[in-house]
Description:
The structure is a homodimer. Helix content of chain A is 74%, strand content 0%. The first copy, chain A, is mainly alpha-helical. The longest helix of chain A has 25 residues, at 58-82. The first copy, chain A, binds a DNA duplex through helix 1 and helix 3.
Amino acid sequence: MKSPPAKVDPRVRRTRRALRDALVSLILEKDYASITIKEITERAETAYITFYRHYETLDQLLMEILDEGLAELLTRIETLAKQSDASDLETEGRLIFEYIGQKADLFRILFKSQSVARVRKKVVRDVAMIFQRACTPLARLDNPVTINVTSNHISTSLLSLIEWWLDNDMNPPPVKMGKVYKSLIIDSTVGAVSSLSTMSV
Amino acid sequence: MKSPPAKVDPRVRRTRRALRDALVSLILEKDYASITIKEITERAETAYITFYRHYETLDQLLMEILDEGLAELLTRIETLAKQSDASDLETEGRLIFEYIGQKADLFRILFKSQSVARVRKKVVRDVAMIFQRACTPLARLDNPVTINVTSNHISTSLLSLIEWWLDNDMNPPPVKMGKVYKSLIIDSTVGAVSSLSTMSV
DNA sequence: TCCTTTTTGTTATACTGTGAAACAGTATGT
DNA sequence: ACATACTGTTTCACAGTATAACAAAAAGGA
Lengths: 201, 201
């Protein structure tokens, strides 16, 4: 990584922030596929060519936005998941959905831009990795197929649940979503895994 | 609908089939976003403007392909799900995955073209509707939120499982995927629903 | 403050893809 | 064989991508 903040030109910081903000606001108000570089640079009040001086493609800019925003959620889930044997799963779920509620815009962007297949795959893999690390020790998952299919299932289920919640105008509130999370995402999977791992899948 | 087959000009049938086949083969070999109308018409050995004489957009042609191909899977799942209380869930799962294995190309196209967010939403809704109809009577689901969140969960989980299976070169075989389907998709959800419906979610 | 370096703005350009027009040619069913 | 409907060719205006050259402005060190 970059240990010192690596003194970056303030003009570059301004330009990049303007471009990011412009893309974010555009994704929130129209279809991602219909967004053009020209629109972004106009909204960012910068020259068209300036975009290409910082990014090669539109997807690259999108990735930068998502990577930045998702890093916090991922570490948050990871922290919660690691201590999940001891702590309350309902509370874990509630905290996740409270965080998502706070950063609702970011997650709306995430799901709208899943139109880019690569983005979706990457996010699913990132989340799956976390649950894989967190769940492997406590369950008796010696079979690699079971581990893969399970972590993929938890990851996609959680993301789908979040997407459903946002589409449903963030109802019900986080407290109840915590209960849904516990029973639908975690408990049910744990139950299924124990029946799966006793057979030669 | 169109009760009689509505006598369609054989030239139109040929042209449309050529365009569909061309798009299918193109999606299987390259990124959907990079496919152009010109490429399709060239591969279909037809004139560029002919495309626009039959379809308004590329997405419309894609939708026609998927609607046609998915209709059979949907009715198949629906038939199986309706008699699921009596029949064997493992067999139900096996049959689903055997069918998917037969039509693997179609499903690869489906997941590749989920890049179009609208396509994804529609398919999820279609599958969710089926499970909603099938599951409502047998479980005690009086709460509309529980019904929605559950059918959405089953739908997205099943689609994710299918996508994972295709990405994993259709391993393990359908027999084992039937077991995974039963425990991970159905049993686990049924268990979760009973705990959810006893509380005021 | 001055001077050098880096970034940004302006303008121009080549290229690709979209979507539609007019008109000529060809296949179809009766 | 005929009117009808479909398809092919050519042409066009337009929008968006990606790059280049040169001028203008901002940043940071001496």
